[in-house]
Amino acid sequence: MTTVRIIVLFLLAAVAEIGGAWLIWQAVRENRGWWFALAGVLALGGYGFVAAFQPDANFGRVLAAYGGVFVAGSLAWGIVVDGFKPTVWDYVGSAVALLGAAIIIFAPLATRID
User: Fold this and answer.
1) What is the rounded distance in angstroms from the CA atom of residue 103 to the CA atom of residue 114?
2) pLDDT tens column, 39-66
3) Is the CB of residue 27 less than 8 Å from the CB of residue 37?
4) Residue whose C-alpha is closest to residue 40's, from 9, 66, 63, 16
5) Transmembrane ranges (predicted)?
6) Contacts of 75 (CB under 8 A, 6+ apart)
7) Number of domains in the chain
């Protein structure tokens, strides 16, 4: 159950952070209105709370692992929402980032260097 919780929280964090940044981008770059910016600020604040619910107590580890999720999630957001056409290198880079995130967050505690 912990693995499912970790994955769900990372996905929620990605939607909140990437969505919030996208909303602010829309407000500033596409002149979509102040309510887009406000919604973006609220979503970005929500991201901080979601990240804090990760079971791992180490802020640095959680945020480092989330970085890989952010890389892949940002490209996925671009594909789905903005019609972005990724290159093979975008896919390879995302896979490497996700592999790094998985190694960081799921490595057995016994193998970590203190």
Assistant:
1) 16
2) 999 999 999 999 999 998 899 999 999 9
3) yes
4) 16
5) 7-28, 34-53, 60-79, 91-110
6) 84, 86, 90, 94
7) 1
